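ok here's DUF885 domain-containing protein, seq below lol
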Amino acid sequence: MTPDEWLRQYALLALRIDKLVTGSATGTVVIYSGPPPWRDQVAGEEPTAARQLVEDAEALLDTSPFPAERARYLAAQVRAMRAVARRLAGEQLPLSAHASECLGVPVRMLPTEVFDEAHDLLDRALPQGTGSLLERLQSWQASYALPPAQVDQLPALVDRAVAETRRRTDEIVALPEGEVTKCELATGVNFRAAGAYEGDLRSTIHINADLPFNLADLLYVVAHEGHPGHIAESMLKELRLVDELGFADQQVRFMLSPSFVISEGLGLHAQDIAFPSGQAQTWLTENVLAERGIAPDGSDFAAIHRAQNILFGAWGNAALLADEGRPDAEISAYLTRWALISDADAGAVLTLLRAGGMSCYVWGYFHGWRLLDRWLAAPDRDARVRRVLTEQLLPADLEVPA
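and the structure came out like this:
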């Protein structure tokens, strides 16, 4: 196959897999901004049998017409598609093996010592109190919660945070002039926040208005979804990889794949990239909290967020327990004990983790955070951030020897 035909078949494979999962608990697995005729072709077809999609993926793996490094990146994405197609065809690997094949990282049950360390970090970072660690975390969250009656003020707060995160990101990597990122409130959705680059330098950060919003998390959320997180990555890669280099595959983003491990790792590190050494807390105190009469309480926002990033690993462990068929009560107790999720919320989290692709995708948060935590701890950190924002990298490219 010619490169153009290979990329067309690559896009059709992703879209056909997405068509099979659309309407299921998984939802969608493709973010598509490629040629409309390819999308329209799949929309007008009868669904393709999953076994045929496995064969189509194997054909792509056997016929790559690209140079070695580009072929290596594309093959990793195709192997992820093949893994999803195999599961759709009825092959049932344990979740750990399936997630490892999709994400390109070794997925296994993490030892609870990992979470003990996160709990110790939280214990030092939260205001002192007499309750349990979960109770103290909930109390801290409540003290910074935007009152429900003021939720209409959230878009303006997000706009201010976008301006600052974008300014700081521009000091690391040049951003295009004329970019616009707006905030929209959403209801009836199953996410906390979501950033979407829509093309032509236009983006939207969607915030779930049904959930309490913690003002101490404002920059953590906005940097993750916006700059230097998902929106910045999507925009800069489209401008460089698609517009300059003609990498059409960048417009066909298969979500249960190695590239999204790096994307979620970038998102979880985004606040610290833009606001190193606790600068986020200083900015929030001066620009948001003080004007609302929220006084400093001795907590360490950056340390709290770091601990919460680590605890995504407990979510992944819970997904593995669910895959083993453990009782809901046992898994909910695990989430409360180790992920510090309240009994009231544990059921909803478990339902999310049982939602098809999410049981696999959740591992991207912990492993993406872990990879970038080590890889970005280098004197050339800004240069490495620029690479993550503008190059097609795989998790293996970020491995640092222990």
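fwiw The mean pLDDT is 95. kinda neat tbh
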